[in-house]
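Quick one, tokens below. Sequence please?
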């Protein structure tokens, strides 16, 4: 666990606003964040992710995006990667050249050597949900799962982040959990909500074999239609929809930058 990365109360922010950037496989989104409300202070800007999404190309887009807002302070950036000490150890939906890249140093240089905190995208979303969303003031073990192209995970124990969990890659039904139950699988295989919810149940039961969460927060784009599938799940853990939705990564990244804690 990373002790200082406690976000249930957003301790240590000490400022009214911050800036977050959320790097995804198809788009790079950013905005100024209002920490008092836990919302975006102004409308976010989205720039298509360069293809290939090499470190240099992504860093240039991040610098362009931050520059459009005239933001001069610390910046938090999410990546779809495991991040250890600012270094990317994996790469999902971005160029494999990210692996073993010192992402924090690279992005800092692209922004004129200012302070940059880099963290896993699901961890950032979880941080935001624990402070402002469905996990607010929840103790015990809380797990955020983002259902999208893959399945991301963020695990909290009494509000403290356990960084870089990769629970979307559990082996389930003889294969990778993402290949069974990601939201993209529902779309690609044209699954009805009931059929997909059955797959999600299978996945969540596998998670429950290794963890005993007190709450599971379901995020990703499908959280907008939570009423279509959450009631169909059959698991022991309460499952609720995320509330910050697509802004969660930006908010969480800004919070991490304001704290100045690099996972």
């Amino acid at each position: 666990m990373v002790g200082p990365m406690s976000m249930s109360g957003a301790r240590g922010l000490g400022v009214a606003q911050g800036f977050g950037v959320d790097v995804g496989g198809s788009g790079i989104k950013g905005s100024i964040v209002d920490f008092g409300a836990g919302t975006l202070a102004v409308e976010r800007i989205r720039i298509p992710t360069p293809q290939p999404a090499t470190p240099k190309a992504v860093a240039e887009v991040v610098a362009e995006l931050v520059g459009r807002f005239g933001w001069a302070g610390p910046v938090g950036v999410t990546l779809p990667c495991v991040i250890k000490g600012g270094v990317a150890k994996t790469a999902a939906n971005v160029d494999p050249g990210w692996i073993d890249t010192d992402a924090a140093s690279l992005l800092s240089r692209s922004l004129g050597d200012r302070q940059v905190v880099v963290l896993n995208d699901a961890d950032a979303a979880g941080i935001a949900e624990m402070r402002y969303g469905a996990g607010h003031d929840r103790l015990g073990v809380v797990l955020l799962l983002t259902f999208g192209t893959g399945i991301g995970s963020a695990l909290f124990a009494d509000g403290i982040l356990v960084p870089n969990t990769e629970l979307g890659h559990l082996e389930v039904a003889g294969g990778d959990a993402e290949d069974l139950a990601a939201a993209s699988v529902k779309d690609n295989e044209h699954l009805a909500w009931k059929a997909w919810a059955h797959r999600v149940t299978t996945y969540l039961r596998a998670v429950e074999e290794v963890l005993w969460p007190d709450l599971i927060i379901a995020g990703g784009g499908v959280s907008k239609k939570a009423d279509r599938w959450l009631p169909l799940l059959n698991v022991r853990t309460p499952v609720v929809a995320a509330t910050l939705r697509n802004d969660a990564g930006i908010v969480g990244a800004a919070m991490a930058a304001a704290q100045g804690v690099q996972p």
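Residues 193-210 form the longest helix (18 residues). The chain has two domains: 17-123+247-259, 138-242.
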